[in-house]
Recover the amino acids of this structure.
């Protein structure tokens, strides 16, 4: 036996304080008496609770099918994954360092969002919200300050590192944390945590782990004495190092192979 229904559903979605009403009409299907009975009881309970004029969330207009609820909206997890994948794809296309575009948030996703927020002057949260996703959809690739041969740029104000090719195009963008300007005591003397500004060149590299006096660093590329671009397990959103330019661990091994001894480094 078949029943014909027509159900109008009003669904309120809330995003950042804005309520959006979405109305839909469910299609005809084959009856399932148990399912209908459960849904009818649910609607009756809602009507009793909110009153006959308050039952805006579900109004039965005509009987169409017992499978009216069989088609469910995408789960919150799927919606979230789709948003993350879109963000990862856009970040990658703009040059931000994302290890894999798969809709699964990892450290490169978070650091990529932070780097984007730094470049665009947004609050540095690492969280993909509606504001960030909208900004991503409208964003352009970051622009290098210097031209000429392939080089590295360290932007102290924005706390990002740009890898620039010989055509002047920014190919990679990484969040960094440079010297915080505070005094610290190491190797028997007081020093200032300062990242020098100016034009330098990669002087030497260590491919692997180095146990330095101030802690363990990974795949360092030195450009001014003991000051290096190196991997670190801690990349705060602000300047926090003793003078080096820290980069995330997911990028340090590849980065040290992408830059070469003699490559210019511009710090500003």
């Amino acid at each position: 036996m078949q029943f014909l229904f027509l159900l109008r559903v009003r669904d309120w979605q809330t995003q950042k304080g804005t309520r959006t009403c979405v109305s839909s009409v469910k299609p005809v299907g084959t009856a399932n008496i148990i399912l209908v009975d459960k849904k009818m009881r649910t609607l009756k309970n809602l009507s009793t609770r909110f009153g006959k004029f308050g039952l805006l969330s579900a109004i039965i207009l005509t009987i169409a099918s017992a499978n009216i609820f069989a088609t469910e909206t995408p789960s919150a997890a799927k919606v979230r994954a789709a948003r993350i994948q879109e963000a990862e794809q856009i970040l990658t296309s703009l040059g931000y360092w994302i290890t894999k575009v798969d809709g699964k948030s990892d450290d490169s996703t978070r650091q990529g969002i932070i780097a984007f927020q730094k470049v665009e002057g947004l609050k540095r949260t690492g969280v993909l919200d509606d504001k960030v996703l909208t900004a991503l959809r409208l964003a352009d690739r970051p622009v290098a300050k210097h031209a000429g041969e392939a080089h590295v740029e360290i932007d102290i104000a924005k706390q990002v590192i740009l890898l620039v090719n010989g055509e002047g195009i920014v190919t990679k963008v990484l969040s960094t944390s440079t010297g915080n300007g505070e005094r610290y005591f190491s190797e028997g003397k007081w020093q200032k945590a300062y990242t020098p500004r100016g034009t330098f060149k990669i002087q030497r590299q260590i491919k692997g782990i180095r146990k330095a006096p101030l802690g363990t660093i990974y795949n360092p590329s030195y450009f001014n004495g003991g000051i290096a671009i190196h991997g670190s397990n801690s990349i705060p959103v602000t300047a926090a190092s003793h003078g080096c330019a820290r980069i995330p661990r997911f990028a340090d091994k590849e980065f040290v192979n992408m830059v070469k001894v003699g490559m210019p480094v511009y710090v500003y």
About this structure: DSSP finds five helices and 15 strands in the chain. Residues 151-267 form a domain with the L,D-transpeptidase catalytic domain-like fold (CATH 2.40.440.10). Confidence is low (pLDDT under 50) at residues 1-40, 46-72.
